[in-house]
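Slide 14.
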Amino acid sequence: MKPLLLSILTGLACSVSSLHASEPGQLEVPLEPLSAEVELGVIATTGNTESSAVKGKATIKQDFREWKNKYQFDALYKRNTYEGDDQTTAQKVFFSAQSDYKLSPENSSVFVYGSYTDDRFSGYDYQNTVAFGYSKRLFADQDSFLDYNIGPGYSFNRRDDGGVEDSIIVHLQMEYEYNFSPEVKFTQMLGSDVALESNKNTASKSESSITSKLRDNLSMKAAYNITHNSLSLDMREKTDSVTSVTLIYAF
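Slide 15: predicted structure.
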């Protein structure tokens, strides 16, 4: 992992630990839940054209009395073979970590966020983001909720040609969930790191998904993902999209 993101995440973990350690007279608050989801989808075709694609995702959430944390890892790999010619057509890794200090039990918090993206076909060697700001749950009822994050940040990117780009950004993120029933839910996630200068790159992501529970810990998910860079490099497309069907195991 690139040094910038590694130092950010290490500092984040240390700051959380030291804050709790600075309260010697306070009883340790047990973890309220610890939840994790592992998602995997595989597609393979044979014949005149052979191809294989693997999509994986892991999400870990922690919820303490004063803090909540979320870690996410997302990967995509695709390879095609035609007339003996092997070619990798997609190879992407994304990692993010966010820690929120709660201002109220459910509705608002302040956060620190860091992310790392390595997309072989974007024209960037890697893209790093760090941000801090304010989080709030706009509304919630028995079937749905809407959360948002907003705050200033810094983006540090290295292009495939070795050039370096950095910019001041505004980090925006929204998550909406609607439960049609205890077994079926719709989720919409939007995120954007908006560059404040017009000649700098704005990176955005979207995921629309339907998840259906198959049994207690096993679900099936159909999703449509979009990634967009406002500045294209080496005549590449600005927008990539992926449609996927995956299995999710929750524990």
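Speaker note: Residues 3-21 form the longest helix (19 residues).
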